[in-house]
Design goal:
alpha/beta; 8-stranded mixed beta sheet; 12 helices; 50% helix
Amino acid sequence: MSFLSNLFSKENKESLDKGLERSKESFFGKLGKAIAGKSSVDDEVLDNLEETLVSSDVGINTTLKIIERIQARVARDKYLGTSELDRILKEEIASLLAEANTNQTFEIPQNKKPYVLMVVGVNGVGKTTTIGKLSAQFKKSGKSVVLGAADTFRAAAVDQLKLWGERVGVPVIARGMNTDPSAVAYDAVEYGVKENADVIIIDTAGRLHTKVNLMAELSKIKRVMQKVIPDAPHDVMLVLDGSTGQNAVIQAREFTKATDVTCLAITKLDGTAKGGVVIGISDEFKIPVRYIGVGEKVDDLQVFNKSEFVDSLFRKN
């Protein structure tokens, strides 16, 4: 069973609609200008649409893919009008997300106990907050959770994780700042096994100092954890700040080169007009977007539901 396997709730949908409001308003404002005074989808409209998608942080390669698909539809249906463009766009983006490796539910494997999740990402993207919110949601669903404060290069990261642990009521294994991150990870996994925990979440260093150092560091953490649980970690989640747009894409490229990222969390989508970045990242990396952050509340970290995401992005008020 998924710990969030319930149907997408009305509260989640309202939160998603609100969180994507600025992205939607910006996108439809640009789309309106792209088709102003036009009744049919011609080359000029397609050029304007391309500019709209790129400026909405969908990304160049994904934008070109979408434009090619719409061109093919225009060629098939000579009477395609601009009034139908938003419906066709919605269909093509939904199709693109369906083709990308994006999960609609998140299942903790029944045979993985403890389930070990290693979290990576640069400082400032909301990594520790994401871990805290996840912990709260896991605990709410009846799971026992252990946190490992292995981002030891930043005192604030260790302290912040401890605060979340106190707030949520889950143990945090820490050795303080400037200690060996892999030693903390080992302690956390060992403690989780001893306490028969359901979930162990390891917060790791967020420095992109050099790719070689990052790769070595994350590889060492994995090796040390595997002394206790041979197949740990079961997932490596990269946290990205959606409000940074294409910078999030650059970070994704660097981290996917440095380690085997298996899923993504895209935070801070509320309060930004850059929601289109979710589409581009899904399409480019074919790594499941598992969570999106659309607000400050614990429940505003949502399991990514691609159909609900597209619906909210294209919902008319």
